[in-house]
């Protein structure tokens, strides 16, 4: 906040209210409140001691914990960035891969950083994996079609393999930097698509999203576990964790144990499922439209309307239509997306969220109609990272912002901090919301957890209690570990 010279309305996820007054909120329930108070006290100190620090509210700051969404950390997220960190051996942002050697020489190992200085990565990271693959194919074919020297070297029709691209790099050194970047991502996308095919992730991803949106219940899960016994244990565990998070009542008594037994999972795996349930917040019961099978576009399933309505009446979350989104397995969205939109409109539920500032005036200051956008005290234009960038082949680096004017003025910033770790689907959400809301949305967290990391935490202790470490020392600054 000091870096941005902002003084926010500080919102936080309130502790659950209990009808039984003898039951007090646990220390875990009070974490967002505790952190919000600490942040508020520090900001008030800054306001009185730092010259020119804002004296009135200039932005929104929302503090939540992992209990708002237990599904996002374990469901398969189908963006290029998320797939890389979920399926490949990526340490931090470092990726090691092999490239074909020169004639007669063995393959070479190459280490690269997947960061935004690589414009191809910056363009593709939030794109659906199928979209990313198509864009890469278009890039290389576009390069060959416009470069006569490349056409001579290629000398034939058909797809270019990674080896073909490396040959072009050696033959056309003047284009080595451009081709190296494309070659890297062709290699990565090819490896990802191979893993998706070999592991049957399309069927797994479809079942996951059908569970979330009410298209599948225990019958479909039992059928999958019975007929897809070759599915690896981690993916079966993720399916059951999603089911337990969405419908915890389905795991009461011995129901969960029977499903775990059918999936041939261990007692430690069951512990991870039970620990996830300790987060224990209820989801909104909603209805939605029907989904479909994996293809370039969703196809409508031919099932009876009565059956669809029966399954959907207690769906974990409602269907949301995303303009221009046609890729299969792109229905899922993290709950933080909906919460941020409500915050932007001044519609946060009063029984779920509180504000350290005067709540009534905060809601009034937050809410504006689309014709009356909110502006920061400091006039600014589009955030630099949110502007469309152009990679070396001339393509725009951000399809979501291609139609947006680079001159539109940004409204007040929205800062979000998630205690207990953030996910890459949440990165995608805040990235898209900056364009949609015309307000820079900045996401921070105590950690960035990919599914395997999140699940490993659950083997040791209840997830929510593990979050206490995030608020042990309020004298330290909150660090926004990622700007989506």
From TrEMBL:
Q: Name one GO molecular function term.
A: syntaxin binding
Q: Where is this region: Disordered?
A: 359-390
Q: Which GO terms describe its biological process?
A: intracellular protein transport; vesicle docking involved in exocytosis; vesicle-mediated transport
Bias kind Polar residues: ranges: 359-374
Entry's Gene Ontology cellular component terms: plasma membrane; secretory granule
Pfam families from the entry?
Answer: Sec1
Database matches in InterPro entries: Sec-1-like_dom3a (IPR043127), Sec1-like (IPR001619), Sec1-like_dom2 (IPR027482), Sec1-like_sf (IPR036045)
SUPFAM superfamilies listed in its UniProt record: Sec1/munc18-like (SM) proteins
Per the record, the similarity remark reads:
Belongs to the STXBP/unc-18/SEC1 family.
- The protein here is known as Syntaxin binding protein 2
Source organism per entry reads: Zostera marina
Lineage runs:
Eukaryota, Viridiplantae, Streptophyta, Embryophyta, Tracheophyta
């Amino acid at each position: 906040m000091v870096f941005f010279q902002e003084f926010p309305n500080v919102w936080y996820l309130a502790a659950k209210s209990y009808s039984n007054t003898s039951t007090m909120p646990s220390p875990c329930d009070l974490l967002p409140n505790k952190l919000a108070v600490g942040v508020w006290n520090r900001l008030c100190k800054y306001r009185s001691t730092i010259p020119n620090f804002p004296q009135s509210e200039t932005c929104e700051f929302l503090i939540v914990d992992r209990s708002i969404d237990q599904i996002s950390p374990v469901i398969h997220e189908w963006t290029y960035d998320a797939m890389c960190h979920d399926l490949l051996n990526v340490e931090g942002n470092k990726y090691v891969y092999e490239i074909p050697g020169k004639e007669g020489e063995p393959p070479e190992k190459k280490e690269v950083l997947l960061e935004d200085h690589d414009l191809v990565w910056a363009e593709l990271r939030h794109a659906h994996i199928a979209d990313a693959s198509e864009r890469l194919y278009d890039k290389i074919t576009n390069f060959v079609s416009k470069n006569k020297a490349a056409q001579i070297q290629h000398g034939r029709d058909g797809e270019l393999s990674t080896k073909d691209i490396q040959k072009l790099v050696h033959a056309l050194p003047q284009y080595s930097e451009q081709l190296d970047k494309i070659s890297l991502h062709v290699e990565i996308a090819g490896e990802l698509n191979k893993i998706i095919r070999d592991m049957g992730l399309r069927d797994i991803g479809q079942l996951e999203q059908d569970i979330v949106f009410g298209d599948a219940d225990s019958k479909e899960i039992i059928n999958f576990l019975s007929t897809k016994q070759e599915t690896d244990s981690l993916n079966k565990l993720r399916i059951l964790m999603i089911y337990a998070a969405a419908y915890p009542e389905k795991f009461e008594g011995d129901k969960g144990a029977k499903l775990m037994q059918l999936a041939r999972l261990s007692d430690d795996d069951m512990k991870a499922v039970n620990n996830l349930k300790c987060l224990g917040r209820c989801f909104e019961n909603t209805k939605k439209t029907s989904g479909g099978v994996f293809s370039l576009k969703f196809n409508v399933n031919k099932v009876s309307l009565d059956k669809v309505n029966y399954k959907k009446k207690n769906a974990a979350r409602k269907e949301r239509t995303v303009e221009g989104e046609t890729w299969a397995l792109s229905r899922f969205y993290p709950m933080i997306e909906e919460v941020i939109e409500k915050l932007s409109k001044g519609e946060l539920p009063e029984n779920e969220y509180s504000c350290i500032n005067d709540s009534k005036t905060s809601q009034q200051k937050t809410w504006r109609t689309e014709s009356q956008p909110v502006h920061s005290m400091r006039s600014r234009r589009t955030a630099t990272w949110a502007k469309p960038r152009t990679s070396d082949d001339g393509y725009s680096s951000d399809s979501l912002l291609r139609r947006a004017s680079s001159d539109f003025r940004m409204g007040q910033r929205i800062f979000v901090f998630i205690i207990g770790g953030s996910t890459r689907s949440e990165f995608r959400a805040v990235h898209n919301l900056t364009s949609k809301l015309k307000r820079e949305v900045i996401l921070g967290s105590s950690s960035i957890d990919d599914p395997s990391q999140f699940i490993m935490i659950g083997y040791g202790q209840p997830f929510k209690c593990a979050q206490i470490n995030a608020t042990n020392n309020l004298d330290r600054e909150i660090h926004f570990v990622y700007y989506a």
